[in-house]
Each structure stands twice: as structure tokens, then as C-alpha cells.
Amino acid sequence: MAATGDNSGSARSRAVSEVVDLVSSLIRFDTSNTGDPATTKGERECAEWVARQLEDAGYTTEYVESGLPGRGNVFARLPGADSSRGALLLHGHLDVVPAEAADWSVHPFSGAVQDGYVWGRGAIDMKDMVGMMLAVARQFKIEGTVPPRDLVFAFLADEENGGKWGSQWLVENRPDLFAGITEAVGEVGGFSLTVPRPDGGERRLYLVETAEKGLGWMRLRAKARAGHGSFLHEDNAVTILAAAVARLGTHTFPLVVSDSVAEFLAAVSEETGLAFDPGSKDIEGTLAKLGSISRIIGATLRDTANPTMLNAGYKANVIPQTAEAVVDCRVVPGRLAEFEREVDELIGPDVEREWVTKLDSYETTFDGHLVDAMNEAILAHDPHGRTVPYMLSGGTDAKAFADLGIRCFGFAPLRLPPELDFAALFHGVDERVPVDALEFGTDVLEHFLLHS
Question: Peptidase M20 dimerisation domain location, by residue (predicted)?
Fold first, then answer.
């Protein structure tokens, strides 16, 4: 049948009725990505389960292992009413970061549904969106719904390691899977941020990701003469490296306000009455008034270089010849050359650097038919909401798809309680997603796809 309107005010849809069970089931697959292919697990089993859910609804799926055994990806296409239009890609990753069970209130791979939440690693990064995609895809196929354009559903491996054995490999080796796709929607966007209004009321802003910083993992290496730990050593690789890491890790990069960030700040200023002056030395202090989300937004105002790993030495009384560190670098669009220049000045001539992983930044404009469809879908289910663009401080699989000329957004809609520290849940302990946020998001996603 032809695409129909949304379910606003009507009975619960098939997709809404099953989304919580789907997300809980997805979480029960331990798909921990350690960054080491030898110890990363669970992606194949989870991908095969996703394929079965799609096939049970009537889809023909394609299962692809991206370069290494077990790195499972699943693709399914739903033809639209006008296949001459560019197709829309909906993508979600199946891997998650590891979790230490002893630190959690519930087992991180239990998928427990309690206290109004679905709990577990991946609940918001990003098996919530995977579950919503799967629920809506199944409903469309079972009920014979024909969307306005072709939809391609992609369930991917290895996002948590930069997509080397997932989206990056697929784009380089299987570009045919993305033929005809012009736009894409993925994670870390569409969630609500509740802000106070000057009249004493509140407004829910739904943050649509239109940009993300460049992602780079940089290795630093210092070399010097090895020797006995009891001797005097002016030339010590550990000392040289440690000093360079300290300078870099404590450095504050200059304030840079990109177009997406400027639009976000203008919208928040309009709603709250707060003045976000890019020339102010205390713009971060003003941002802090927005609550926990300020950690994500604040990180989009500057480049960051955070040391995350150190490695040197093999015995207590031996000064090693080599010392190494890894630094997690996130770079504002258009800043890469200047960022590298600043890094070189900070680490000095005695420390070598190389990019272990280097993925470009991305930014698009907050306009066009797809943005209008996002806004209409939000307003259909939250008439007092407002969509606004923002930049993600991290990175997603969108970086790979942008290399194919696909226009990418983050839109995984969730209406969140104002008191929930959403930012802390990403890669955090007791990761969880509200049940009613999942149900809301599924309704919004269905409306969006029917009008995309």
C-alpha cells in the first residue's frame, strides 16, 4: 500500500509494540569491540540475528564480513514509490565498547527492563537506534508500506574502532552496496535537551547532528640511548616523552565557532535568553548553565588532544630506548593543518608523531527536504519541540559515507527526561535508555521515513 500518515493519537503501532524487546535482545549479544580483532567478539552472531528478524518480515538480506572473519554487516533495501529519487541510508553499528560488570548496578549484557529503562552496554550507543530501525523496517515490510523513496537499512561492525573493519572497509571494497544513496541518517542526534525559558517555562530542543569533528588517534614516540637505571641520564626517552605528553595534554587550543555550533548557540540563546558571545573568555561558563550536555557542546568549540595510552620500559633498572604514547585527537572542521602545526610546536623536535587512525571532519547545512521531514516528525509527536543543528564532538560511520558524496545527519530521536545525564551514559557505567523515549523515537522515526 502507499505511504500513510503517522500514528499520532492512534493505537500503538507494531513497531512501537516490539521495539523494547528488540533493543533488550540486541543488548544481550556481547559485541564488545576492544580494538583488537583477536579479542573483539559477537558481531557475527548479532548480525545473523538481525538478518533473521528482517528475513522473518519478508526482506532479502545481504550478509557481508568486512575484511576479517566475524566482522558481520547486514544490508536490506525497501523499494520506495519513486526509485528515481536518491535512496536514504539508515545505518547503525552493532559493536559496543567493553564494560566491566562489577561496576554496574545490573549486568551490562542483561538487557534488563526495569524502573522504566532498558539497561545495558549499547542502550544509547547505539542499540537503541538499531532496535528502532529494525522495528520500523519490520513493520513496513509486514504491512506492505511503501515509503516515498528507497530505504537502505545497514547494520554495521567496528564503529567503535573507527570503522576500519566496518564502514571504512565497506566503502573502499563494496561501494556497490551504497549505489544510488544520496543521504544518510545515523546516530547521536535527534535527542532532546530541555532548556529553561525566560518566562519560567521550558522548551525541548531536539539536536540534529549536522557536523562532527575530525577523529585522529596519534602515536608519539621518543627515542634515546638505553642504559642502566642507576646512572645519570640526561637523554631519557621516558622523560622526553612524558614532558611532551604533559604539554600537549594540558594545552588549550583556540576557540573556533563553526557554522553548526553558531546556529546551535543562536537557537539556545533565543530560547533561554543566555548570551553566548564567541568573543567571551567565559563562553564555557555560560554553556555550563545548560547542564550535562555542555560537556559535548563545549568540546565542539576547540580542538582537543587527550593522552590515553602510555608504553615504555621492560625492567625497573633499565632505561628503555623507546617510549610511546597514544593521543585521542578531535579536530574542528577546517582546523587540521593548524592543529598539526600546534602539536608539533608542543611536542618538540625530539618526539616523532604518526597518525594511527585519521578520519576527516564533516559538516553540512541545516536545510533541505530531509531536515524539514525531521522537524515535521518531531513536531507531530512533540508540538512544543524545536529541532536545532549541532556538532558532535566524536565521530561516527558517517565519516566513511561522506567520502562517497552522501549527505549525512545524526537523527536517532529520543525524548529524554530533563534530569537524565545523557552525556554521561555514552561509554559510561549503567548505560540505559528510557522505555518511553524508545517508543517516542520509534513513532518519530516512522513518521520521518514516511515523509522523507
Answer: 210-336
